[in-house]
Amino acid sequence: xxxxxxxxxxxxxxxxxxxxxxEIDLELADIAEERGGLPEQVEALAAQIAEYExxxxxxxxxxxxxxxxxxxxxxxxxxxxxxxxxxxQQLYAVTTTREYDAITTEQETAKRExxxxxxxxxxxxxxxxxxxxxxxxxxxxxEQLRAEKVSREEELERKLKETEGEEKVLLDRRSGFAKDLNxxxxxxxxxxxxxxxxxxxxxxxxxxCGGCFALIPPQTxxxxxQTRDIYACEACGRFVAPAELD
Length: 246
Fold this sequence. Notes:
This protein is of the alpha+beta class. It has helices at residues 8-34, 38-91, 97-178, 183-195, 218-225; strands at residues 2-5, 201-205, 208-209, 229-232, 239-241.
């Protein structure tokens, strides 16, 4: 797989720049590993905290609705009881069977409403208590998560301070090597690097690619050693450079 045609001097410069970039990328990967995945941990904790906060808000809203329903049912229960007492008094004054039947029907309706309101009060009061406990438990867990996030952020900040100077130097060096490279070549290197454990360029080892050890045709080996072209391994996609570039 031939990537680019150019003079041997330009080919050597390009391959040397790609090799330098790879060494820098490996050092940057070491720095990232040194940070121990802390940025991802902080991000994950932030997402979890947001979920907990959303959960607490939802349960608090539900608790408020349950308490409101219980309160309104309490008021209606009191009214239904007053009506029942009123109907009871009216029974003493009835003079006809028709009046008695009418008041008795009203009493049954009031009693049914009383039972319904008592059930609503009981159900919603119990639910409000349950929700309050759920919120309290979740808030305790939330505080632990917040404390853990602060701890991770402090650890990350410390590690960033320890490595940011070195990282900046490496990034500046990388930019210096990358600025004169063909964008297509650099994009190919970065794509393969991401797919192949951080290595987008290998050296020719004997008759094989030093990255995947796939055999390279003899004529292509000559092209690589004489830096007459830039070659990417047909098997793994890595650029293949001669063992000596100076």
